[in-house]
Design goal:
By secondary structure, the protein is α/β, with parallel strands linked by helices. It has 13 helices and 22 strands.
Length: about 425
């Protein structure tokens, strides 16, 4: 067996190391442990050489012990070892994970928290999860620590650049609790704003960062741990949203738009020309981080009200596209509504930056060729449909008629999933 010991808040117990012929772990784990004098020691750095040494000892029947932090089965080395040697070869003895310890230090339950790892991974997923959810634990790594997380969460906030007619969104109401050196005499948990986090050098001792909306930190009693389940319904009725003079994306159009956008946890969606924000809200309900761009002041307030009514976070940019998009992070998907003369230029700007897809809804036939060209010129594969629907409507005498809705063109462009701007993903 390969014994995998999570050290928790103390050194590995001596009995777990008795008779070990190979002990593998981080330098601090090895220094704190009672490693047998005749055992070979391997300091973990690159995994491949260490796994090769473990395999040689394992094949000979030697006793191997791997030391790890916290719970090694939680974003830890157990996955790699199980893939290489099989789960049956492992004797895992977990300690307390850094996530559990951090939440314990601040006195909060964490069955409703979303846990995301930025260690050796693209930080944007963690950032978008923090934007979308009120209670997130981020496992950090080099280049993906509190400073980088704070800077990303605050990006786009404050005054608009000179000459730009736009009011960028204020940062979401989030606080960062940075837990460092958990389980040691230097243990520390600091409460900072994203801006304060961005301005500091945090060193290498950070264990985990909790990103919280403190107004909702306790949350509701849960039966299933982790992020909330997806909504039971989408493409909600227009009456579920405040809107002006029926200026809202109809639910038939919204249903197909959502299918083509594919909003999900860890991704960023733009809703450009958001109007009532119905698409933005629905994307947020499905787990995505969302930025809604709207040039009308009353529309901005309406979007915020609709987001609040549905219990989701939507950042709202008050400004005109495409200029108002300049300081925003690149989106995974974009929905564009409206039909003015500037529409093809807006679509082109969105298509250049979208990582996966752009969906455009318009009523004007005259705009279709130019919008299609904007999508294809950006390297997207373009498709589309004319949506025409008739809804059941009552008539006097307890009979029913069909009431036609206005036809809407829905075009979409999808980027090749393997390449973006010629670079393999």
């Amino acid at each position: 067996m390969i014994t995998v010991v999570g050290t928790g808040t103390a050194a590995a117990p001596a009995e777990s190391l008795a008779g070990a012929e190979l002990v593998v772990g981080g330098r601090r784990h090895l220094e704190a442990a009672a490693v047998p004098a005749d055992a070979e020691r391997v300091v973990l750095g690159p995994l491949a050489p260490a796994l090769d040494i473990i395999e040689r000892h394992h094949d000979k029947g030697s006793r191997v012990v791997v030391l790890a932090s916290g719970d090694p089965g939680f974003f830890g080395i157990v996955r790699v070892l199980a893939e290489r040697f099989g789960a049956a070869a492992l004797d895992v003895r977990p300690g307390v994970s850094s996530v559990a310890a951090a939440f314990a230090r601040v006195g909060l339950p964490w069955d409703d928290a979303v846990v995301v790892s930025a260690h050796g991974r693209d930080l944007r997923t963690a950032v978008n999860v923090c934007r979308a959810h009120p209670k997130v634990a981020v496992l950090t790594g080099p280049g993906a620590g509190p400073a980088e997380l704070g800077a990303a969460l605050g990006r786009g906030a404050g005054a608009a650049p000179a000459g730009l007619v736009a009011q960028f969104p204020a940062p979401l109401e989030r606080v960062l609790l940075v837990a460092s050196a958990l389980g040691t005499e230097d243990e520390c948990v600091e409460r900072v704003t994203p801006a304060e986090a961005a301005g500091r050098d945090w060193g290498t001792a950070v264990s985990v960062v909790l990103c919280l909306d403190e107004r909702r930190a306790l949350g509701a009693v849960r039966t299933v741990a982790g992020p909330p389940p997806p909504p039971s319904q989408w493409a909600l009725e227009e009456g579920e949203f405040a809107h002006r003079d029926s200026m809202i994306t109809k639910f038939e159009v919204r249903a197909l738009a959502l299918a083509r956008l594919g909003p999900r946890l860890g991704e960023l969606v733009w809703d450009v020309g958001a109007g009532s924000g119905s698409v933005a809200v629905e994307c947020a309900r499905l787990g995505a981080a969302v930025v809604a761009v709207e040039k009308a002041a009353d529309g901005v307030e309406r979007i915020r009200a609709n987001a609040a009514a549905h219990g989701v976070d939507v950042q709202v940019v008050h400004g005109s596209a495409p200029d108002a998009l300049a300081e925003l992070d690149d989106p995974d998907a974009v929905f564009v509504g409206g039909g003015g003369r500037e529409l093809p230029g807006i679509v082109a700007a969105c298509a250049r930056r979208a990582r996966r897809s752009v969906v455009v809804a318009m009523a004007a036939l005259d705009r279709v060729p130019a919008v299609r060209a904007a999508l294809t010129d950006a390297g997207l594969d373009c498709g589309g449909v004319l949506l025409q629907s008739s809804r059941l409507a009552p008539l006097p005498g307890d009979v029913t008629r069909l009431a036609a809705t206005n036809p809407v063109f829905l075009l979409w462009g999808v980027r090749n999933p393997v390449y973006r701007e010629g670079v393999a993903q």
